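Hi C.,

You asked whether I'd gotten around to modeling the 539-residue construct. I have! Everything is below, sequence then structure, no commentary in between.
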Amino acid sequence: MTDKLTNSFSKMKFNAEAEEFVPSWLKKTPAPAPTPAPAPAPVEKPVVKPAEKPAPVVEKPKSESPAIDDKPKSTPSTPKNSGSPAVHNLKNEFNAKRSNSQDFEVPKDMKENLNIVFIGHVDAGKSTMGGQILHLTGMVDQRTLDKLQREAKEIGRDSWYLSWALDLNQEERNKGKTVECGKAIFETEKRRFTILDAPGHKNYVPSMISGASQADIGVLVISARKGEFETGFERGGQTREHAMLAKTAGVKKLIIVVNKMDDPTVQWSQQRYLECCKKITPFLKQVGYNPKTDVHYIPVSAYTGANIKDRLTEDVCKWYKKESLLEYLDNIKIPTERNINGPLLIPITDKNKDMGTIISGKVESGKLKKGQNVIVMPNKKPAEILQIYYEDNETQYAVSGDNVRIKLKGIEEDEISPGFVICSPDYKINCVTAFEAQLAILEYKNIICAGYSAVLHLHACVEDVSITALLHSIDKKTGKKSKHAPRFLKQGDVAIVRLETAQMICAETYADFQQLGRFTIRDEGKTIAIGKITKLITE
């Protein structure tokens, strides 16, 4: 019997060296968990390897930004970004911590730059005025002007030669119409000026919006010639739309230049000058300009140069005794605040390839220098600034308000599009596909419901957009939001809506950066609505 029991126990293969069995509630120290099921195991035992990978993302999202940058472009707004620094308050973040990337001084003797956009109805004389200014300030010499005059005479367009100083495209010269927003620079003793010559034809309004988004001052050119002013100012004319778009784009001051005062139908008539001013003033007030503080009127002749640089003489005009156009521009106070010590933000308006990648744009905030490392958003491509140009003149530095061309190293031209934004690697602009905004419907015959699609113009960005939800209607008298969402919007309504874009865009709220938070919505060649971003959404 004893032998049988011994044989039975030997077949069971007991481990003689095993520790004594002790119940878990009597143990003084926790036994190593055989499975990762118990929840407290990762807290008490940080040695467990599966818990190490997600820990840096949850505990220190800011230090893991390189990992976020490596994500594929196809998933820029995945739910993983909801807890990441994809949407942040850029201004507060910059004020809270400053890095060495923008900790440098710029020369104090740098001339202040003023960006001027010429807007108005087609054939009002915008390009001619720009060419005349370049000639009078010495930026275009007499030899070049004589050459342009001969070329214009050959095709039977003698009076167009001044406009050709800005209209460099052969298509523009043949048609006599500006197609793209031209750019030129001139200087006075006090300031440096950037001229942005916007097209006046209704087919090229997107180019006009791009120019107005870079401007500090707007010069609204109207023709005093009988019939031309009325054509441009009537409903459907570009005088009205350009004034409204300039206000939407952030142009806070307008100079109303009454051109063609030397025309035989006008002959410097004070009555005609006052008639034009009287008709346009109520509309400018309706758009949002204060006629007393935001609007200034000047009579000129762009073709002859009268009252452009030098004041009018009595033999030309006896009733106007005030300053000339360039005198007024030289002494005007810049209406926009220059945030030189803020985070670097440069919306890209144009690109080309010339021995490297070259981009154009206005420095909306911050400062930059040669050799500085930057990042291009939203594709998060790092680059280095090789050269900085004011037109064709190379410079070492640029500050907020400057309109510059920049040669970049480390990035190809096909990796950049207009609407992308150059910023500091430490302070990246927000990139989203959805946002909430306060929207004002200007002109639309039908009703607008959720699902309506159009084209969004935001700084230099042009993107397809759709209204996904109507959240609140706003009382225009009190400014209060409604409790219930409206079923539709019609012309004249103001509402809070949610919009979604087809691609990722660079944007900030209007409260943080006005120039990067105001937008226009256009559809079928017409401006449908204007708005400002109130909230950025990533979910």
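If it helps when you're writing up: The chain has 13 helices and 21 strands.

Thanks,
B.
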